[in-house]
Amino acid sequence: MLSVPHLDREFDYLVTPEQSDDAQPGVRVRVRFHGRLVDAFVLERRNDTDHQGKLGWLDRVVSAEPVLTPEIRRLVEAVAARYAGTRPDVLRLAVPARHARVEKEPTALAALPVVAPVDLAGWEVYSRGGQFLTALAESRAARAVWQVLPGEQWAERFAEAAAQTVATGRSALAIVPDQRDLDALHQATVGRIDEHCVVALSAGLGPAARYRRWLAALRGSARVVIGTRSAGFAPVADLGLVLVWSDADDSLAEPRAPYPHAREVAMLRAHQARCAALIGGYSRTAEAQALISSGWAHDIVAPRPVVRARTPRVVALDDTGYADERDPAARTARLPSIALRTARSALEAGAPVLVQVPRRGYVPSLACGRCRTIARCRHCTGPLALVERGGGAACRWCGRVDPALRCARCGSDSVRAVIVGARRTAEELGRAFPGTPVVTSAGDAIVAEVAARPALVVATPGAEPSAAGGYGAALLLDTWALLGRQDLRAAEDALWRWMSAAALVRSRGADGLGGTVTIVAESSLPTVQSLIRWDPVGHAGSELAARAEVGLPPSVHIAALDGTADAVAALLEEARLPEGAELLGPVDLPAGARRPAGIAGDVAVTRMLVRVARADGLQLAAALRGAVGVLSARQTHEPVRVQIDPLHIG
């Protein structure tokens, strides 16, 4: 496979009689190209060629295993066309590296799986939930977005949908954000379907184990495949259902070119295979809501009385003037007394309390105590942070320690915390609740589950442990750090993180004395109101309408072009953009965005946005894809990174 964009096309080679039996479409081969051996796939066998010149010979067939199936090839081409990428880049995501020893191992013959009967009671709580499962039993291509209730055993419901599909003789594919979700879904699935028919794919398996399971799907012995984002390309035969859990999670966005999102790959695959599809989550993205608005998918939601009964009570900091009178500092304190009282009540009732903070570490960001200038390293200008109590400030980029801080702007030696991390929060809570165990779950030290006894659990978003029987209360702190980001998805992302934590709290109960979620934020904010009312559908609808009004995805398609000013200008000059395409910029590369590969660190990088109507998305991608190939052949400019509908525009 050639990673150079202008060589993203087919090449003809001659096949010897000895190679003919093995050199079938889909197998891996080695060919000589421009004087060196490169890896390739056989796409087609023909008796003629339109090449004008002498053809080279196939060097060798690496393996007779047809790893690139026709279905996956069509998906690869569709993803490359959707994201203005090259097929070799997509193939690296779709087909894992070969492991020769594993490939020679015999694979068990595919047998009819034993599937436990599916009880529809869990789905019938939701409007259209039972109808969706009935459609799966009839092998119909039903597509839906499922709004999951707090406390719901989502993995059990996904497993039931997969079992309903497998019972019809077809296969299911499930995509989840991380290993914890994968383990939960795998455990639920093998409880309903024979374990030998279920495989889990993840990067942590290692090359041999992952390739062994991938081959099980390719050879037809696996009827259910569960995996993280790259599993969307798994070679599942006779696909009947595609499932995606929590599409709001950033982990489902591929960080490598051409930067596809697992949700879009799954929906492309469901469209090509004409099979059923389900997107589920505690919150909802504007993209998922757009599928509902367009009629491509149906809504699976619970009636409002059920929602009210199943959700915890949510209280914002300024919910009542009475609270303000009793706690005058409630609007400004990080741990106001109303939140501490909620936590104390839950602990006295014998339940654990969840405390969500947006950052890990001790004090991950410092600023001058006088002029509020962010404290930065003298050597590399990286942000300074406190790694432990009483220690010096250390740079988060180069690791150098600065024992004597002094503001470069005003000369003051006083500092203040801009953001308080999980470890510092745990320390503060330990002093506020002496004798109560404090558990920290963040970064590489993630706790999977806590017992149903009094404890304070401090966790960052996505690292919240589950609690047996649910948490008695949850405190959502430093909410401004999520809502205040200058990002297209700041509100959507904040609501997803809050709801994911709040969903672990016990329901309010019939007497109103159940679980409580206290969010330290202004209750008048629309995103906070959506949490209080537990209305992610309404929030997603508002987000979709607001983005349509100002011309942002998913109502339009936007391409972000990152590179030097000359290279971006040359690309746009070469591209035949759709009529009506709007150019926005150029601007400096947004803070936090990675620099494009191949550009020196001292060279200025700019970003240009190209906006087109939604109907012109494929035309925009094709124009940019062709222009990138032309500039690649000329080799007169630095490479330009092209991202279609990037997750974070800036």
From TrEMBL:
**InterPro entries, A to Z:** P-loop_NTPase, PriA, PriA_3primeBD, PriA_3primeBD_sf
**Residues spanning the signal sequence:** none
Q: Which Gene3D superfamilies match?
A: P-loop containing nucleotide triphosphate hydrolases, PriA, 3(prime) DNA-binding domain
- Is the DNA-binding keyword given for this protein? yes
Primosomal protein N' 3' DNA-binding domain mapped to chain residues: 2-96
Q: Give binding positions for Zn(2+) 2.
A: 377, 380, 395, 398
Q: Keywords of this protein's UniProt record, alphabetized? A: ATP-binding, DNA replication, DNA-binding, Metal-binding, Nucleotide-binding, Primosome, Zinc
How cofactor binds (record note)? Answer: Binds 2 zinc ions per subunit.
State the Gene Ontology terms under molecular function: 3'-5' DNA helicase activity; ATP binding; DNA binding; zinc ion binding
How does this chain assemble?
Answer: Component of the replication restart primosome.
**The protein's name:** Probable replication restart protein PriA
Source organism of this protein record = Mycobacterium asiaticum
